[in-house]
Amino acid sequence: MKSYHFPEGFLWGGATAANQMEGGFGEGNKGLNIADVLPGGKERLSILQTPGFNFEIDKEKYYYPNHEGIDFYHRYKEDIALFAEMGFKVFRMSIAWTRIFPNGDELEANEEGLAFYDRVFDELHKHGIEPVVTISHYEMPVNLVKEYGGWRSREVVTFFERYVNAIFNRYKDKVKYWMTFNEINSGLVMPIMGLGFSIQKEEDRYTPTFQAFHHQFVASAIAVKACHQIIPDAKIGCMILYAPVYSYDSNPKNVMYALQEERFFNYFCGDVQVRGEYPAFINRYFKEHNIELDIREGDLELIKEGTVDYIGFSYYMSRTEKKEKSDLENSQGNLIGGVKNPFLKASDWGWEIDPEGLRISLNQLYDRYQVPLFVVENGLGAYDKVEEDGSINDDYRIDYLREHIKAMGEAIEDGVDLMGYTSWGCIDLVSASSGEFSKRYGFIYVDKHDDGSGTLERKKKKSFFWYKDVIATNGEKL
Q1: How far apart are CA 471 and CA 478, in angstroms?
Q2: Rounded to 5 degrees, what are φ and ψ at 136?
Q3: Inside any domain, residue 414
Q4: Which interval of the chain is the signal sequence (predicted)?
Q5: 3 in a structural domain
Q6: Total domains, the chain
């Protein structure tokens, strides 16, 4: 097997999100966020987007898996010790906005929430692990949704600024790697998760969405400037959901369609946050769809000044597109799909597996932006079986990750500046899209099941020991 040479100091680790693993519902004066009102089950997102949904909890009707998650809130020391045993250099996590500002619009931060993350960061540093912190990861305070309309409201920019200043000042000596909004471009297809509102049938879908994006771009720029001022030696990046778009064939109409889809979904947010300006193709889109944004004096200058230091991105699959696709079978994916690619196999959940697509993605992003890249999500959601002797032999996960890490090695040889790699769901957690525990990504098995049963006991999978060797050899032993 070819040996790959990753840069010295490469940031190996794992990735999670507070709302999918933390638990501690209602503890420490935590407020209600969007994830807290998401029931378990494959229909959870459609329920959330139902017109008239009131963002209330109905425990008689639904089970809410995020309320307990995998109880990281109480078990973080045990979990961090396991991450350290694997040799993690970094641990990607998020701060729950509603632990710091329970309603989102308070004037003062919640000390109990701040103190919790102090303890987590201290425990990470005790084991020599640097935290990589996502500031907002699909967990907007419900109060900001109900009272202000989510990111459609300019007022939310002010609340976010208050939030980031609180955490930057509190953790300036503990966190050196930050990201602003998780998978920010996902708002184009699932605005409820990232933008804090649903598009109703009678509502114009274009202007509210892009107005909300504009507010997030302003907020991101504010966060970048504040981070650079308060923590001068820190790095702060954006985070996008990336899936390269292939044309179904060489028909120029399909090639152009694939290009337009790729620019619109993959590059719109990156162009604004990295280059600091709205790209020409989105300005044309605004003109053709009669979209007029409320852009205040100084906004565009602020966005230009507040560009990010690096790009963090998730990569799970590629996407194949055809302009007229009614005659083809659709594929599934991470909030987005396309048509089935005849050259690719798929996971248990129908997500097509394409390691070469990661190399393509890294080259595309680096060619376009020339800033450091960070693969902060990549992994295989699969059914895992606990054998009678307690072992979990997840060779399929090892195979998946090995091929994707090899693709990163090739991209580095291509000249890509790659900072690190954090495999998604390094410990089993709640699926964001379906609320399932059975969709497992981790190196560490958690005894928790879709019906809420389980002991929460942690078990090391076969992949645990494999990834430990990968890190110990800096990617040479795959």
Answers
A1: 9
A2: -135, 115
A3: yes
A4: none
A5: no
A6: 1
118 in a domain, yes or no? yes
Q: What is the CA radius of gyration of the chain?
A: 21
Question: Is-contact 132 194, C-beta < 8 A?
Answer: no
DSSP 8-class letter at 185: G
Strand partners, 346: 352
> Which strand (E) or helix (H) includes residue 458?
strand 458-460
Q: Is the separation of the CB atoms in 456 and 447 below 8 Å?
A: yes
Please give the pLDDT value at position 23: 97
- Within a domain: residue 106? yes
Confirm whether 476 is a catalytic residue. no
Say if CB 408 and CB 359 are below 8 A apart: yes
What Å distances lie between residue 90 and 114, 176, 248, 322, 401, CA to CA? Answer: 20, 11, 38, 39, 18
Catalytic residue among 377, 403, 410, 413: 377
> In 322-387, where does DSSP find H-type helix?
355-369
Q: Do 361 and 373 meet the contact criterion of CB atoms below 8 Å apart?
A: no
DSSP 82-125: HHHHHT-SEEEEE--HHHHSSSS--SS--HHHHHHHHHHHHHHH
| Token pair for 259 | 């290009």
- Our CA dihedral for 24, 28, 34, 36, rounded to 10 degrees, sits at 30
Question: Which CATH number do you get for residue 213?
Answer: 3.20.20.80
35-44, 154-163, 463-472: least confident range = 35-44
Q: Which of 383, 365, 408, 373 is nearest to 461 (CA)?
A: 383
- What range does the domain containing 97 cover? 11-472
In whole angstroms, give the CA distance from residue 305 to residue 275: 10
pLDDT digit string (tens) for 423-465?
999 999 999 888 999 999 999 999 999 999 999 999 999 999 9
